UniProtKB/TrEMBL annotation:
Signal peptide stretch: 1-22
SUPFAM superfamilies the UniProt entry points to: Cytochrome c
The species this protein was found in: Thioploca ingrica
Coiled-coil residue spans: none
Residue intervals of the Cytochrome c domain: 28-126
InterPro entries in alphabetical order: Cyt_c-like_dom, Cyt_c-like_dom_sf
UniProt-recorded name of the protein: Cytochrome c
Record keywords: Heme, Iron, Metal-binding, Signal
Gene3D superfamilies according to UniProt: Cytochrome c-like domain (1.10.760.10)
One term of GO molecular function: electron transfer activity
Domain of life: Bacteria
Amino acid sequence: MKIILPSLIIFLLLNLSQSVLAAERDQTLFNQGKTVYEKVCSACHNYLPPPKNAPPMLGVSGHYHQTFTDREQAVSHIANFIQQPTKEKSKLPPMAINTWGLMPPLALPLSAEEVQAVSYWVWEIYNIECAEPTKLFFCQHFQRK
Ligand code: HEC
C-alpha cells in the first residue's frame, strides 16, 4: 500500500496532465494548417531535412521556439511574415537568407483563416515532434541553446 498509493497518484497525474496538454491543441486548426502546408508551402519547404529550396519546416518551427515562448506572439509573427516577408522580420539565423534568399511573396494570397491555420501548424509541429527530448536528433539541436 505504501508504494502503490503514491504510484497510483503519479500515474493519474501524468495521465491528467497529458490529456490537458492534448486538449490545449486546436486539432481542427492544426489539420487545416497541415492542408495549407501540403498545398502551398511544401513546394519549397520539406517537413524534415534534406531541404528542398527553403529550410525544412521542423527547423523553422525550432527556431521560432528559440525566439518565442508565447504561442500567440509566435503565430502572429509567422502570419505577418508569410503575408509580407522582409529580411528585418526574419527570426532564422542569417545563413538561411544567405543560402536560399528571402522567402518570396506567396504566388496566390491565402485567406486570413488559412494564414492563421498554417502559422499555427508551423508552431505546433515542434511541440509534437520534439515532445520527448530524445525523439529526434534534429530536435536536440534546438534544445542545446
Ligand atoms: C517559393 C518558395 C517558398 C514557398 C512557396 C514558401 N516559402 Fe517559406 N521560406 C522560403 C525561403 C527561401 C525561406 C528562407 C528565407 C527566409 O527566412 O526568408 C522561407 C522561410 C520561411 C519562414 C521563416 C521566416 C523567417 O523568420 O525568416 C517561415 C515561417 C515560412 N517560410 C513559412 C512558410 C509557409 C507557412 C508557407 C506556405 C504558406 C511558405 N513558407 C511557403 C521559401 C518559400
